[in-house]
């Protein structure tokens, strides 16, 4: 017997303990089943999103279609003269992966720090025409 708040209560028998354990096991199973259902549902949503993505044309294909303005730009735009650390170069017209367009140039340049020390730098130049990105 167990004394609680001045009242005596019988300790649970081994049968009652087994019943408690089975209830706990049942709860555990329910939680596990609920979790598995949730994971299965998430998986089906992911598959549906993948299927939907396949229906849409790829970004590469969308870029290939392009607008008349993009095509006109790439045909008529001339190289852009740029100078960095006294070195002159021409940035070439380019259509970027986002669909926007402008000029791009990459080059290594040696920059004099002024105290006789020189450092080699990478120049990565993107000049994007504002509003050139096509709508989604």
Helix and strand layout, with pairings?
Blueprint: E1 2-4, E2 7-9, H1 14-55, H2 59-65, H3 68-76, E3 80-84, E4 87-95, E5 101-112, E6 118-128
Overall description:
The chain starts with a strand and ends in an 8-residue tail after the last strand. The chain has 3 helices and 6 strands. A hairpin with a 5-residue loop joins strand 5 and strand 6. The protein is α+β, with helices and mostly antiparallel strands and 136 residues long. The strands form 2 sheets. Strands 3-4-5-6 form a 4-stranded antiparallel sheet. It has a two-stranded antiparallel sheet with strand order 1-2.
Average pLDDT, to the nearest integer? 78
Strand/helix succession: EEHHHEEEE
Can you tell me the residue ranges where pLDDT is under 50 for at least 5 consecutive residues? none
Structural class: alpha+beta
Radius of gyration over C-alpha positions, nearest whole angstrom: 34 Å
* Large-scale geometry: elongated
Count of β-strands: 6
Task: Please report the distance between the alpha carbons of the first and last residues.
Answer: 74 Å
* Tally of separate helices: 3
| Strand order in the sheet with the most strands | 3-4-5-6
Q: Helix amount, in percent?
A: 40-55%
Strand content: 25-35%
Tell me about the biggest sheet? 4 strands, antiparallel
Task: Offer a few descriptive terms.
single chain, 136 residues, alpha+beta, 4-stranded antiparallel β-sheet, two-stranded antiparallel sheet, 6 strands
């Amino acid at each position: 017997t167990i004394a609680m708040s001045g009242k005596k209560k019988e300790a649970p028998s081994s049968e009652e303990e087994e019943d408690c354990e089975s209830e706990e096991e049942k709860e555990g199973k329910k939680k596990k089943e609920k979790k598995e259902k949730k994971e299965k549902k998430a998986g089906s949503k992911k598959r549906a999103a993948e299927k939907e993505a396949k229906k849409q044309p790829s970004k590469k294909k969308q870029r290939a279609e392009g607008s008349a303005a993009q095509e006109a730009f790439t045909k008529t735009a001339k190289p852009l003269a740029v100078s960095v650390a006294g070195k002159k170069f021409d940035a070439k017209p380019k259509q970027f992966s986002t669909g926007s367009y402008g000029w791009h140039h990459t080059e290594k340049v040696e920059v004099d720090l002024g105290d006789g020390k020189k450092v080699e730098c990478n120049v990565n130049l993107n000049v994007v025409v504002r509003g050139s990105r096509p709508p989604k």
